[in-house]
Amino acid sequence: MEKRKLVFATNNKHKLEEIRAILGSEMDILSLDDIHCHEDIPETADTLEGNAQIKAQFVYDHYHLDCFADDTGLEVEVLNGAPGVFSARYAGGEGHDSEANMKKLLSEMQDKTNRKARFRTVIAFIEQGEIHLFEGIVKGCITEGKHGDSGFGYDPVFRPEGFSETFAEMGNEAKNKISHRANAVKKLCEYLSK
Q1: In angstroms, what CA-CA distances link 43 with 11, 120, 175?
Q2: What is the DSSP letter of 80?
Q3: What is the pLDDT of residues 15-72, one digit of tens each?
Q4: What are phi and psi of 123, to 5 degrees?
Q5: Which ranges of 24-179 would DSSP assign to H, the alpha helix?
Q6: Which pairs from 28-34 meet CB under 8 Å and 24+ separation?
Q7: The predicted structure's pLDDT at residue 173
């Protein structure tokens, strides 16, 4: 039986690897590159839900393929949920400068005793034109400094609840079992297997 093909609307190689590691045995996950979509899809919404829907809708409207997109934010309690929807562009500039983003976050957290934070992923899945949303959350805290070198983004400064290591210290396999993205993807899988 041929595996079901789904487009994951991302150009982020780390996210793609992570999703393929979680879903790989059950589905054939295509990237934007695989479908020759080279447009830069603007993330102009002020919510994670909005951005995920914009990306998925763009692919569906232009390529007529069932697809899903995600948006993820790190929400820090004492910073009123910042960086949130601006997590990738937190330090300014074009975004995805993880080092600059972590540096800014750690400096803003310098004198804070409340270090509670959570990662939240929202997946927008479009199937035959219908949108379904799935959310995954993992709670934890922001560490005092960077620890570990696997993962990406804020992984070296985020320690999930109930663990002694940051996401970057635990390695991708362990992270993929408990992460916010894994939780959202599990909900997507449950829906797909119905």
Answers
A1: 13, 16, 26
A2: T
A3: 888 888 877 677 889 999 999 999 888 889 999 999 999 999 999 999 999 999 999 9
A4: -110, 130
A5: 48-63, 98-108, 167-178
A6: 28/3, 28/4, 30/5, 30/6, 30/65, 31/7, 32/7, 32/59, 34/7
A7: 86
**Whether 64 contacts 54, CB under 8 Å:** no
* Contact in structure between 9 and 60 (CB atoms under 8 Å): no
End-to-end Cα, the chain, rounded Å: 17
Element (H, E) at 37: none
| Catalytic residue (choose from 66, 70, 71, 155) | 71
The answer to whether 160 and 167 have CB atoms below 8 angstroms apart is yes
Residue 71 known to be catalytic: yes
- What are the distances in angstroms from CA 120 to CA 48, 150, 184? 8, 19, 9
Give the tokens for residue 154. Answer: 């804020």
- Sign of dihedral through CA atoms 29, 189, 58, 12? negative
The residue count for the chain: 194
Query: What predicted TM-score, i.e. pTM, was given to this entire model?
Result: 0.89
Structure tokens given for 75: 């929400």
Residue with tokens 């993820």: 72
